[in-house]
Amino acid sequence: MGSAISSAVSLSVTYCACNSASSICNACLGSTSPQTTGRRRSVLLLILAVVLSLAFQYSLAPAILEKGEEKWSIIGSTIGKRLFNSWTSGCESYNSEDQMGQCVANAGVFRPTFLSFVFFVIAAVTSSIRPDFNKHAWPAKFTIYLLLVFLSIFTSNTPWFSGVFLHISRIGATVFIVIQQIIIIDLAYNWNENWVGKADACDRLEWGSGAFWLRATIGACCVFYTIAFIGIGLMYHYFNGCGSNVAIVTMTLLGIIAVTVLQLVGTEGSLLTSSVISSYAVYLAYSAVSKNPNSSCNPQLFEPNNSYDMIMGLMLTALSLAWTGWSYTANDRMSADGLNQARSLGTNGSSFRRGQDPLLDVNDPLLQYNDENQPPSGLALGSLDNDDDILYSHSSEVWKLNAILALICCWVAMSLTTWGSIVDEESTHSAANPTVGRFNMIMIAISQWVALLLYTWTLVAPRLFPDRDFS
Fold first, then answer.
1. First to last CA, the chain
2. What's the sign of the alpha-carbon dihedral 59, 60, 63, 65?
3. Which one, of 302, 324, 326, 328, lies nearest residue 58 by Cα?
């Protein structure tokens, strides 16, 4: 009798544990309903790749290198020797211990990021043919990915990791940087158009009521320019002492002034857009100077041998890279038309009243009403507010999610390995400062000028080619 009760209790506890685990997985990974895209699960795999990359780079790679070939041969016989040779393959040409360590650590990063890159490329091709594939069989996908990562530990660095993928990553990361700037500029333009459109809509209802949105636009401009110039002043104060830092900050200041003046003397663009781009340029300047490996002019460098600084550096890096993956795969950035969908008016299941239909933002006076209690003929654009996992109206857009994540994998690999560079001066590139490095600094500075030049082109192109439509 006692054993029966014990078995029943055990089964009950097991059932509750399984249900709880299932609920946690659903909360973290999202549901598999027809309205989802699998975005959460895709980004979660990217986060897993980032965590594994950091673990391989700063834990597994140093441990393998520290034991040496002879010790590994004694500990693990053939397997241990193969493990050591696989991770040091292609690194034999480096004579110094530091350079050898960087080479092996970089190869550790390339393993999980290469496999995640291949995963998302295959997912992009598959979802372009069958969009619903992206939301199914995720337990199997994660299992296969982790199994391949485990097998990659015993795979040689060359030719795939330190050879082919290194060059692919440099190209993919560069493409992603350009896409980043285009997205930011597009968002800045859309923000201005949205607020000006709201002002016009309010004025159509009641003349002068749109002044609120115009004041908000001017206020936002003042806030962004204030943040930009304060940021420049702080960088001059705290990151002074190196010619490279001063050059980056000064060029940022000149770039902000140039694009603002260019926008003010013409009819293209808007002051709100210019202020957003100016603040973004200052942010990129800060990102660049904070990657300077010279501790004399970078007060934000953590101590390489301090355990607390190492933990903080790794955590902040993982969070920032994960946020990049999440934010740049947002639904409204994946679809050309955002989440706007055409819907019939007055079909929300309740009786229609003019001015009260939830699909309309305002009581548009331009619509023709035959009856106050009947909807007008036509369509209205409705926006889906749940931006977590809503499937786009055009399901063929889902492949872009995986394409962007594949590019982000390349960008993560380059950020963590300072674009695959191996030089003596990168002594501060450690677990406490995972993304610090001269090449990272240079690439961020280049991305800033890509953003400024692209925005400049949007201002001068309509003047150079007045017969073309640049809207």
1. 79
2. negative
3. 302
Nearest to 54 by CA among 442, 430, 421: 430
Could you tell me the pTM of the whole model?
A: 0.72
- Is residue 344 classed as helix, strand or coil in its secondary structure? strand
Helix (H, G, I), strand (E, B) or coil at 341: strand
What number of other Cβ atoms are within 10 A of residue 136's Cβ? 11
DSSP 424: T
Dist CA 149 CA 143 (whole Å): 10
CB atoms within 10 A of CB 260: 18
Kind and range of the H or E run holding 382: strand 379-383
In Å, how far are 236, 241, 242, 255, 258 from 247, measured between CA atoms? 10, 11, 9, 12, 16
Q: What single letter denotes the amino acid at residue 12?
A: S
Cis preceding-peptide flag for 159 (omega within 30 of 0): yes
Q: Tell me the per-residue pLDDT of 12-33, one tens digit each, with 9 for 90 and over.
A: 544 454 455 455 555 555 455 5
Please name the residue that has the structure tokens 């209205």: 380
3-class DSSP assignment, residue 67: helix
Under DSSP, the state recorded for 132 is: G
Give the amino acid at 76: G
Give tens-digit pLDDT for 129-168: 887 788 788 899 999 999 999 999 989 888 888 889 999 9
Print the SS3 string covering 70-111: HHHHHHHHHHHHHHHHHHHCCCCCCCCHHHHHHHHHHHHHHH
